[in-house]
Every structure is written in C-alpha cells, then in structure tokens.
Amino acid sequence: MPKIVDHDQRRAEIVDGFLRIVARDGYEAATTRALADELGVASGAIWHYFRNFDRVVEAAAIRTIDNTTARIERASSGLRGLALFDAVVHEVLPFDKETRDEAAVIVGFWGRAATRPLLTARMGGETVWWDRIRLALDEAVEDGELDPATPTERIVHLLASVTSGQQVAEVLGAGSTTSEEHGAVVDTVLLPWRTRVTSTPSTQR
What we know:
The protein has nine helices and no strands. By secondary structure, the chain is an all-alpha fold. The chain has two domains: about 1-50, Arc Repressor Mutant, subunit A (Orthogonal Bundle); about 60-195, Tetracycline Repressor, domain 2. Helix 4 packs antiparallel against helix 5 and helix 4 crosses helix 6. The protein is elongated, with a radius of gyration of 19 Å.
C-alpha cells in the first residue's frame, strides 16, 4: 500500500527548518543544502513540495507575518489608545531575538521579490497591524493622549514606511541598532502630537 504523505504538513516542516536555520545561523546560512541537511533529506526531496527555493522563502515570509499577527492579537487584548499602539509596535519592530530573526526573513524575501516580479506573497496579515494602529491613534485622540488635530491616517502610512525601514536597518546593521534606538524612531513620529496628559513614551523599553 503506498505511503500517504500529508503535503501541508511536509511543507510546514520545511518552512520550520528554514526558520530554525535563520534563527540559529543567520539568513545567509539558509541555503538549499543547509535546509536539506537540517531536515535529513536529499535536496531533491524539498522540490516535491515547493517549486523552487524562492517559494520556500515566500512561505517563510507568510509564516512570519502570520506569527506576528497572532502575537499582536494576544498582546493588544484589552488595550486602547497609546497602550495599544505600543503593544502593536513592540511586535512589529526588531526589539528582541524573535523579531530580529523575523526581520531577516522579511527583508530577505523583499530582496528576492524585488528582482523576481512573479514572486508574490500573501501578506494580508499586515492589514491587521495597520488597522490596529489606526484604531489606537483614533482612541488616543479621543482620550486626549494625542492632539485633536493629529493626522492619524497620514501617520499610519508614515509608520508603515518607518517600520519597514527599521527592519532593513536592523538587517543591514547586523544588529547594531538597539531596541531603544528603534523605539526612539517611532516615538519621534508621534512626538509633535502628544499632549500633556500623555505619559512618557513607552516604546523605548
């Protein structure tokens, strides 16, 4: 009787292996050969489940986005205003080992996608991030934490660019940027709109 293979499970195991290599040895170490060794299979076995290595990187990027979104859902429960804002930002910016590893995966994917027009990933999970940031800013205005004239929609778009830039800076700087420095960049975006009732920016932990 032929062996039944769960393709979704095997694909997930390959992505798990890729992410383990990135976390342990760095993004550049995550090659086809290294991935095959990590999984204990021949290189060709990987291609039964992925068309090529680009698709492995894409799947890892999707997994990373989904993991971040799940953390945001947990961390932001019951929060509002700037407390909610800080909780979301802490799950997106490269503040710790986990989010720094994630930055390496995402920036690595961007690098491949920039030269491969047909390589696209389902990044819809990011919509949750910005919807949550938008809600947090609107609540902060309502609660008096931010000035009533705060251009919340423009700030959301600015933060999307800023957080992407901080992930790139983290990867290019090989971890030389501290979590305090990452947080300071985001705090500076809101600084002109903070009111006297606003507590000291908490993104600089």
